[in-house]
User: Fold these one by one.
Assistant:
Number 1:
Amino acid sequence: VDLMESGGGLAQAGGSLTLSCTASGGGFVSINTIGWYRQTPGGERELVAEIVSGTRRNYADSVKGRFTISGDMAKHTASLYMNMLKPEDTGVYFCHTDIMTADAIVETWGQGTQVTVSS
């Protein structure tokens, strides 16, 4: 499984950015979870938002009401719309998936994309 991330970059506080993630590799039976984590300098990687079993959406408390995750499980894609950005949203955002194949559940991380929010 390979993950292709796009989006991110620099935004001003109050602005918006969109991240996208596409999974490829074939042999997918189903996508158990697809979502985004972020890591700040010196901090741990934390969940931002995810889609579970194609329907349930989980969000970190810090982004509820500001971020929206959407996905197309048939196309193996997910997008994270980040609105009302704050400087504390700055970090490296990683796409993460748990995908069921014919042989196993494969956990995969993207390479990460930088999001910087200036005050």
Number 2:
Amino acid sequence: QVQLVESGGGLVQAGGSLRLSCAASGKIFSVGAMGWYRQAAGKERELVARITRGGSTNYADSVKGRFTISRDNAKNTVDLQMNSLKPEDTAVYYCNADLWDIGLVYRGYWGQGTQVTVSS
């Protein structure tokens, strides 16, 4: 099976920084696009940032200029550097990866989520 494991969440004051990391492991053939989503209390899950295998990125308007997504294809990891954090960034952050497993089945996988709390 395939697992996505996130790390790096926590509590930070407004204006601070956090770095989230996610590693995909297991019976993987190849990883396609990877991304970060978030879900605040009482709200729907939303895209934060996404990166293709080739390095093309897209960001939610609310995080442009503050967050940076990056990946290491050799390690099947994706990171999210979050700077100038605001209280409205408080949410559970989920890693996502679209990948082919060793049976060449293509589907999306989710991590378990990591809490990010930004205090004012």
